[in-house]
Amino acid sequence: MKNGEIIAVGSEILLGQITNTNAKFISEHLAKIGINVYYHTVVGDNPNRLLNAVKVAETRADLIIFTGGLGPTKDDLTKETLANHLGVNLEYDEKALRSIENFFAKRNQPMTENNKKQALIFSGSQCLPNDTGMAPGMFLTKNNRTYILLPGPPSEMQPMFTTYAIPEILKGIENVEQIESRVLRFYGIGESKLEVELEDLIDTQTNPTIAPLAVDGEVTVRITAKHALDDERKHLLDETEEKILVRVGKYLYGYNETTIVNEMGKLLQQKNLTLAVAESLTGGLFQEEVTSIAGCSKWFKGGIVSYAPEVKINNLGVKKETIENHGVVSEECAKEMAENVRKLMDTDFGLSFTGVAGPGSLEGKEPGTVYIGVSVKNKPTKGYYVNLFGNRESVRVRSVKHGAWLVYNALREID
Amino acid sequence: MKNGEIIAVGSEILLGQITNTNAKFISEHLAKIGINVYYHTVVGDNPNRLLNAVKVAETRADLIIFTGGLGPTKDDLTKETLANHLGVNLEYDEKALRSIENFFAKRNQPMTENNKKQALIFSGSQCLPNDTGMAPGMFLTKNNRTYILLPGPPSEMQPMFTTYAIPEILKGIENVEQIESRVLRFYGIGESKLEVELEDLIDTQTNPTIAPLAVDGEVTVRITAKHALDDERKHLLDETEEKILVRVGKYLYGYNETTIVNEMGKLLQQKNLTLAVAESLTGGLFQEEVTSIAGCSKWFKGGIVSYAPEVKINNLGVKKETIENHGVVSEECAKEMAENVRKLMDTDFGLSFTGVAGPGSLEGKEPGTVYIGVSVKNKPTKGYYVNLFGNRESVRVRSVKHGAWLVYNALREID
């Protein structure tokens, strides 16, 4: 099993209503396990054209992965078209059927026939459970080719692919040169500055390769090594990482798919400290990111979204004079917000955000003007000014990262 | 010229490093001018596989649009491969060549030979100028087929396609049947229930077509009409919409790219009413969505993220007995949260969320168990129980939608 093709089924993609992000996700994961993808195809909800796409793919690939067309409606026909083409029967997967029945039973809703149909899988195939939806996927090897069928919604496809399909694929291959990447995440250093620091490494290195990338105020460096042996790959990555960190290690906050908020949370938990937050321009974005982390209740207590000035005064206890003299977009206001929310919620850390997200200016200050307050128990409260780049959304996202970075650094200073 | 296929050339797409957003952009624009796109293909920077993709496309399309592979480097070979296949010569486009020369002269840099090569276009083709980069595109009709070559970077491809390629395409078709879509957005009805309600319409309708889609707890219905005349298309859409709304109109909340939170905000602003929010399991997600709307300060004052039980008691004034007797995951707690946050922030509406986002259960209640409180000034506060489906993220997203839907409905009842 070496040559892959990904076929996305869905007229909505051909109409330009949605982007085929599934192909990217699958390709990325196949690259990591050394499987070449030579073609992506997108075809609509039409059995003849789908059949045409399958026949073309069979001339050039031995691993064909389908996304979409497994749902309950009439235009979902990937399974039926393929069963017909391959000459296999459809049979109910008992487990999948029970899970669909449970779904409706729980909601006291009757299960219609078209929903039941989702539990049909190819006879002789491996069922790939759907942990986040109803339609199961399947894995079938026939005529020396492997066919994998996955649902279309990314929230169902992604966990099914990584949890159930990848292990099945790996069973069929051995001793391939695998690709392994490690992403180092930096904050507080610009992309061009980082690139200058690492220039000679980037230019001379071939295995691993080193690729910097800037996204929303932070910079990542992807190190990618190629080797058949796990230990050797790891060794190559370690060696290169060390060379990089000697130069820019103080800006490193984490590895791979983490976030600054996540790393801040880990440190709070390690040190057994708690946090409360007061948000104005970020309007709940910081706390939303915090509470998307399961288990955050160990270190996060809550906060106040003080969008209106009167909420800052009445509910957060910011002094009226502070706002009259300095405005809500000020270091003074940020400091009172941080200190007061910490006291109100009885935590070790208080963090606050106030500023101008845009599109309009506020109190004569331009969008991107942001003040962040950090209050630590038994220490003087600090206020920070930052000027952030981008539109409303971007300013909010960058504010959240900067706030987390400030708390993260304050935490590193505490034993 | 009726059947389109889009071929994106670039190994970085097959490696999953970038998403093929070009195909979406082009498809969307072709749909508007009535051209059917039946396939998307992605192929790497390899002449043999590219040639294979072209040959396949020629069996099923008479408009083939290429993106990528027009740049100066060695792996840019779309132009050469195609010239060879079609038996056409490459010749310099004088205007494009001068524009590239100017680019380097302006920067005081020498122009290398490989950069010059970018100005080569097919003999007999129309040159499509590149206003935002160097490599021009081209438009060639040969053997009753049209070939359009566009650069890969979206910042170059998009303006070239809309400014120069679309007018060329339109010259080749008259009295074009254009496609127009309208999306109706529903909440509170499942996809299969909605499909049953509309089944005969969906089955018998051909123009407009009717396509339901379920995403994260809501259902959309896309009506797509085809007609050469603007008025007629609008009439077709209106007529079908009316038929649909007679049956399921009470679940409609908006059209096209809006959200329930957005529609709720519009109603609050229209009626000159204000909102405050108390969030537990949603942890700021509702308020984050609210404050991503520019101008929300007219109707949104703020809120409290009461993640820890003691914040519910100390900062939000939920009675200790309520939590002892009913737990935090209860209708009683939700009602007190909604009413108290409304009073604390002196608003007309108070909305609250408490429940189990998962992955673990809480107070013996399963993930997906959610209570929402809605408090309206001078009315009895109401509590609602919902059982929501999905993982932690999905439960939170669906909670937010459900809360906004409840406020939206309460607002519709107010004159």
TrEMBL record, chains A, B:
SUPFAM superfamilies: CinA-like (SSF142433), Molybdenum cofactor biosynthesis proteins (SSF53218). Gene3D superfamilies: 3.30.70.2860, CinA-like (3.90.950.20), MoaB/Mog-like domain (3.40.980.10). InterPro entries: CinA, CinA-like_C, CinA_C, CinA_KH, Competence-induced_CinA, MoaB/Mog-like_dom_sf, MoaB/Mog_dom. It holds the Pfam family MoCF_biosynth. Residues 5-171 form the MoaB/Mog domain. Belongs to the CinA family. This is Putative competence-damage inducible protein. It comes from Pallidibacillus pasinlerensis. The gene is cinA.
